[in-house]
Design goal:
By secondary structure, this protein is an alpha/beta fold. The chain is about 35% helix and about 25% strand. It has four domains: about 120 residues, Rossmann fold (3-Layer(aba) Sandwich), CATH 3.40.50.12160; about 120 residues, Transcription Regulator spoIIAA (2-Layer Sandwich); about 100 residues, Transcription Regulator spoIIAA (2-Layer Sandwich), CATH 3.30.750.200; about 50 residues, OB fold (Dihydrolipoamide Acetyltransferase, E2P). The chain binds iron/sulfur cluster (SF4).
Length: about 425
C-alpha cells in the first residue's frame, strides 16, 4: 500500500503553531507520513493568517512554491484567511479545500470524504476540548492552547471575525494535555490563545490554570504568551514574583502610546492605566522582562502623536517591542477612519521604533551581565549552545556536553547587539 504524504506550512501566531502540531498528529492517525518543510507531499496544508496584508501574499507564494516542487499536490488552506475569504480561495491553482477555524481539526477526515470543499461556518461561544495533543517535535518548548476567539473588537483587528467569539478550553482538558506534553519531554509550556486573560471555565480563571500546572511534576516552566493589559489581575503579578515555575516575562500589547490613537483603536485602557499597571508589574517582579506590540501609521496618527508614542516607549519600563505597520483589512472598522498615513511615513516610523527596541533590549540584557541565570537549552548552533532564560534572554555558551533540553545555570559574561554570551 502506498503511504500518503502531507506537508505543513504555518503562518502567523503561536496559536496557529500549536494547532498545526495537533493536526500533524491527526494526519498520522489517518495513516499519512509527515514530510519536512522542504518537501511537498500528496497534500499540502497551509494554516493561514490574515492579520496583515502580508499574510495573504505569503499564502499565495506558499501555494505557488508547493506547486513548483510538486505539481500534483492538493492544497488545503485552513484557518483565519480561509475563514474570512472563503470560496474565493478555491480559484487559486491547486487549492482543493478551504476550511475555516471551526472545522480545521477535522481536516484528515474531510480530505478522505471530499475531493473539494469550502467549509467556513461561524464559530460558537461554547467551551471546547481538543483531540490529541500538540507535542512539538521541532521545539523544546510546547504551546498549550487554553482559549480561542475574542469579544473586544479593536477597530484594526479581524480576529473576532476570523476566530469568532471568546471561548475557553475545558479546564481538565488543558491539564490532560499538559501532562502528556511533559511526559513527552517538554519542560516548558507556553500558554496560548487569542485573549487568554479572559479565560473562564466552570469557575476557573486564568491564574487557576497556572496554579494547577505548577503541580505537575517534571514541568519546570510555564510561560504566558501575549496577554491583553486589562485582563491581568494584580494577583497574577504577585504570584509571578514568588512562583518557581511561572516565567518572569510578560508580553502586553500597547499598540499606541497616545490616548487619542488608543481611542480610535477602541482599545480598553488609557495610557495612564497601562503605564500604572506595567510599572506595578516591573516593581513587583524583580528581573521581569516586559515586551509589547505597537502599530505604526494607524489612521489619525499624526507626526506629533507618533513622537508621543516614541517618547513613551523610550522612557517606559518596556524592554522590547514588536513593531507592526498598519495595513488596512477588509473587515476592520479602521478602514473607514480618516487621516490615513502615507506608506513612506509608516516605513520611517517603523524603523525608528525597531531601532529603539533593539537599544532597549540591549540595555535589559546588559543589566544582567554578571548574573547567574538558569537557561533551558534548545539547540547547538555555530559552535554554541543556545537557550532562553525564564525572563526571555537568549543566551549562547560553549560546552562539549550534550545539553539539549537541559536546564543549566549560566553566568552571563557579555551582552552586545548580536549576542548574549555566557559560561557554565
Ligand atoms: S484584543 Fe483586540 S487586537 Fe486582540 S484579538 Fe481582540 S480585537 Fe484583536
Amino acid at each position: 500500500m502506498t503511504v500518503k504524504t502531507v506537508s505543513f506550512y504555518t503562518q502567523g501566531c503561536r496559536l496557529n503553531q500549536s494547532e498545526t502540531a495537533l493536526l500533524e498528529q491527526q494526519f498520522e492517525h489517518h495513516g499519512y507520513s509527515i514530510l519536512s518543510s522542504s518537501e511537498v507531499g500528496d497534500v499540502t496544508v497551509i494554516n493561514t493568517c490574515t492579520v496583515t496584508e502580508n499574510g495573504d501574499t505569503d499564502a499565495k507564494k506558499l501555494v505557488r512554491k508547493a506547486l513548483d516542487l510538486n505539481p500534483s499536490t492538493s492544497v488545503a488552506l485552513i484557518g483565519c484567511m480561509a475563514q474570512i475569504q472563503k470560496d474565493t480561495l478555491l480559484e487559486w491553482p491547486g487549492v482543493k479545500w478551504v476550511i475555516g477555524n471551526a472545522h480545521k481539526m477535522e481536516l484528515p477526515s474531510i480530505i478522505d470524504s471530499h475531493d473539494s470543499l469550502v467549509l467556513t461556518p461561524k464559530m460558537t461561544k461554547e467551551s471546547f476540548t481538543l483531540p490529541g495533543n500538540s507535542i512539538d517535535r521541532h521545539h523544546t518548548r510546547a504551546n498549550l492552547k487554553v482559549q480561542d476567539g475574542c469579544d473586544f473588537y479593536c477597530s484594526f483587528c479581524v480576529i473576532p471575525f476570523a476566530r469568532g467569539p471568546a471561548r475557553s478550553r475545558e479546564f481538565d482538558d488543558i491539564l490532560k494535555e499538559a501532562r502528556v506534553l511533559v511526559l513527552a519531554g517538554h519542560r516548558e509550556l507556553v500558554l496560548t490563545g487569542v485573549n487568554i486573560g479572559t479565560y473562564q471555565n466552570n469557575g476557573y480563571l486564568f491564574l487557576d490554570i497556572i496554579k494547577a500546572l505548577e503541580e505537575i511534576e517534571g514541568l519546570d516552566r510555564i510561560r504566558i504568551s501575549s496577554i491583553e493589559p486589562t485582563t491581568i489581575p494584580d494577583e497574577l503579578i504577585h504570584h509571578m514574583a514568588t512562583s518557581e515555575k511561572l516565567c518572569r516575562h510578560l508580553h502586553i500589547p500597547l499598540q499606541s502610546g497616545t490616548d487619542t490613537v488608543l481611542g480610535l483603536m477602541s482599545r480598553k485602557y488609557t495610557m495612564q492605566e497601562f503605564d500604572h499597571f506595567i510599572q506595578f508589574a516591573h516593581d513587583t517582579v524583580p528581573g521581569l522582562c516586559i515586551g509589547t506590540d505597537v502599530i505604526v501609521g494607524f489612521p489619525g496618527e499624526t507626526d506629533e502623536l507618533f513622537e508621543e508614542t516614541e517618547a513613551y516607549l523610550r522612557e517606559s519600563c518596556i524592554d522590547y517591542f514588536h513593531v507592526f505597520s498598519y495595513s488596512e483589512r477588509a473587515f476592520a472598522r479602521s478602514k473607514k477612519l480618516e487621516g490615513q498615513v502615507e506608506s513612506y511615513k509608516i516605513s520611517a516610523r517603523s524603523k525608528i521604533l525597531r531601532d529603539l527596541s533593539q537599544r532597549k533590549r540591549l540595555v535589559f540584557h546588559q543589566e544582567h551581565v554578571g548574573d547567574n541565570l538558569p537557561v533551558l537549552v534548545e539547540s547547538f548552533k555555530r559552535d554554541k549552545w543556545t537557550g532562553l532564560t525564564d525572563n526571555y534572554i537568549r543566551v549562547n555558551f560553549e560546552s562539549d556536553a550534550d545539553l539539549k533540553n537541559q536546564i543549566v545555570v549560566t553566568s552571563i559574561l557579555e551582552s552586545n547587539p548580536q549576542d548574549v554570551l555566557a559560561t557554565l
